Amino acid sequence: MDRIRTLNFRFLSELESNAELFGSVEGIFSWLNSYIHACPDFLKRSILYLSIFPQYLIIRRRRLVMRWIAEGYCKDTGNSSEEGSGEFYFSRLLSTNIVQQYPHLVTDVLGSRRMVFCQVNNLLNGYIISQAMEENLVLQLKGICSQTAQRTGRHLVIDSSWDRDRIVFESIDFSRLRSLTVFGQWRSFFISASMNVLRVLDLEDAIGVKDKDIDRLVKLLPRLRFLSLRGCREISHLPSSLGDLRQLETLDVRYTSIITLPSFITKLKKLQYIRAGTSILTEEQPTVCSSSWLSGFCRRQQLDGSTRVAPDGVKVTPAIGKLTALHTLGVVNVSDAGGKDILKELKNLIQLRKLGVSRVNKKNIKEFCSAISYATNLESLSVKLSKGNQESLDDINFPPENLQSLKLFGFVRGLPAWIGRLHNLTKLDLEITLSAEVDIIRVLRDTRKLCILRLRARWLQPGAGKLDFRVFTNGIEESCFQKLKILYLACISSEVHVSFGSQSMRNLELLTVRCCSGSTLKFSDLNHLPRLNEVWLAGSHEDELKVGIETQLREHPNQPSLKQVE
């Protein structure tokens, strides 16, 4: 037991390197049992909670952390918030290899706090489920169930494979139930009046959930802290009774048909997390995968850019600033007459760390820039500019120093110079139309922590399309983009020439290239990227581009592979 306690949570590495110590499968699971029971309570609870999610499911990190918070697993210690504690728990599970990055990366591109998806280690999944069921923690309804089986638990999981037997369902004791998670088809009888202590209702991507179901369940579940209707496309509005859920902390209605958040939402003073919006972001769409970690990195990212849709938001009340506990808000549509007032109210949300805003235009851009200058704790920002916008974002005088992720969509006169002052930026997504020749690279060269750059730019002036990733000072090439691992380039101008220097992007591993019909993209000096492993080629391109890249890759010392993706 002493030896187990000293493994410093690296037990899977120990298992793999010392398999002979265990002798058999029984020995391995006996050791795992001893290990888990030796874990601190917070870690043991977090491990067994993973049994809620089916083995095939790719889990969003934020979904897991916000559920832990709602369950009361995470405490505000003074030194760390509830969310901070949850992120710490997640990092512990990651460091022990209990959960793994999805896909399984060779290198840690963004770290646990920026990781979007994870998956339970296959070796442990069955064991975790058996332990959770043995302790009556989780009750799973799968396939065809009998009434004589286990009928109690703190967490109920309805699998997509279950036959939806109402008699079996009504035989369950709901008196201790704290969470209900539904996969697959929804049935109205899944909600019972005896579920009055339920804290978590997770219907993400459930099929057939309607507005009338939400009205009923909200009235029956007054203690909800977590409500996710994410992906329930038939939901178009929220009932007024939602305003009575005074304990609600997380509300996720993203990818529903909801276009307006009602004013009574300001009654929910404990709300920390609001996600809404009707459009699909690139980072959460299906993608092509290959065998390597690079090909799978953005599982839900359409790296070919073929159907990219910028985020569109929901309308909210100008009184949104009353929800001072919010740390995540998006995506908010500020195009209406009340848009200026909404942007002014954002200054009251001093705990805000993640913000998404759409329809920024010439009428409200001044208020937007002012609001962002006040958002000193912001770590992630997504901005969609209205069509025809002729304004600049240069008036953000004090960009958030802690900003790690920035997404900018729309027409800009030039790239804001303050982006170069974002010294903690790790992910940058630009889908922009430029009115004049702009040296994008000179603006970005000082973003020294940048790991992922996605650039889809269109130049209105013929011949202005040039991406020279070399930066010279007094004739000497500077070192830049040394942390960059993934570069995505899309060509939507008539002709764009891309070149790389010997002192830039020396750690780049994946280059993804997409050409649109009528555009031409030319590359030079790919040999200056010493760690390049893969090049993806997508879209409508001339044979000349493919042949040119193939020629350069054959001469590359690392022999990178070239993959054609749809």
TrEMBL record:
It holds the Pfam family WHD_DRP. SUPFAM superfamilies: L domain-like. Keywords: Repeat. InterPro entries: Disease_R_plants, LRR_dom_sf, LRR_R13L4/SHOC2-like, WHD_DRP. The keyword Repeat applies. Residues 52-103 form the Disease resistance protein winged helix domain. GO terms for biological process: defense response to other organism. Residues 177-278, 314-562 form the Disease resistance R13L4/SHOC-2-like LRR domain. PANTHER family: DISEASE RESISTANCE PROTEIN RP, OS08G0246300 PROTEIN. This is Disease resistance protein RPM1-like.
